[in-house]
């Protein structure tokens, strides 16, 4: 889990669902498979267990569709990631009757302690799960980068907090979608945004219309 924590929240989420996969990763490492052997293993996986991605999968929602102007916080000045999580929780709370901002923030902070939400390229994607609630998000840009542990060593500049009803495949696909946006320069695109309409305009150029 430590390796997954440092490398990918996507991997860490999978290991949470299937802990035995961690033992398989360790066995591969213990055998010290070389590139050619790993290629053979990949061929076996593709033959025996084809990718589950197919046209039957519902595509993840666009990030823009999960946001509202009220759930955008631009140029936040904060001392650490916990401060940003507190602010994100405060914007998520109105959509969660019966759950206060304090409880949401505590959940986000606890999950951050368990699994780093940093996906690289200056972006973190903390998540909280709440049954019988629609998927939604809060986006926070930071006035000053935060020096936190990230997969690529780059400072944190943007937080996208996701809330969804389940921990299953759809949740992982949503996380992967935001991670792809991060790889495409999401933090750079939104760094100078001063108004919500600028955020939505820039997201529209990065995502297919929903």
UniProtKB/TrEMBL annotation:
Q: Which GO terms describe its molecular function?
A: transferase activity
Q: Where is the PTS EIIA type-2 domain?
A: 65-206
Alphabetized SUPFAM superfamilies for the sequence: Phoshotransferase/anion transport protein
Q: Which UniProt keywords apply?
A: Pyruvate, Transferase
InterPro entries, per the entry: PTrfase/Anion_transptr (IPR016152), PTS_EIIA_type-2_dom (IPR002178)
> What is the protein name for this chain?
Phosphoenolpyruvate-dependent sugar phosphotransferase system, eiia 2 domain protein
Upper classification of the organism = Bacteria, Pseudomonadati, Myxococcota, Myxococcia, Myxococcales
């Amino acid at each position: 889990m430590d390796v997954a924590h440092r490398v990918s929240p996507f991997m860490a989420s999978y290991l949470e669902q299937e802990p035995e996969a961690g033992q398989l990763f360790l066995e591969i490492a213990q055998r010290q498979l070389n590139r050619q052997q790993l290629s053979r293993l990949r061929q076996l996986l593709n033959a025996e267990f084809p990718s589950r991605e197919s046209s039957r999968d519902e595509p993840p929602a666009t990030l823009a569709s999960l946001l509202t102007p009220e759930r955008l916080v631009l140029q936040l000045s904060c001392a650490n990631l916990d401060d940003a999580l507190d602010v994100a929780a405060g914007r998520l709370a109105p959509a969660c009757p019966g759950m206060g901002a304090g409880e949401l923030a505590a959940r986000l902070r606890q999950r951050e302690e368990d699994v780093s939400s940093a996906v690289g390229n200056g972006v973190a994607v903390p998540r909280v799960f709440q049954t019988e609630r629609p998927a939604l998000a809060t986006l926070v840009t930071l006035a000053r980068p935060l020096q936190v542990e990230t997969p690529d060593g780059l400072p944190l500049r943007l937080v996208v907090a996701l809330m969804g009803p389940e921990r299953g495949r759809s949740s992982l696909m949503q996380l992967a979608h935001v991670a792809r946006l991060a790889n495409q320069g999401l933090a750079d695109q939104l760094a100078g945004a001063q108004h919500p309409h600028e955020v939505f305009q820039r997201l529209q150029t990065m995502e297919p219309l929903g």
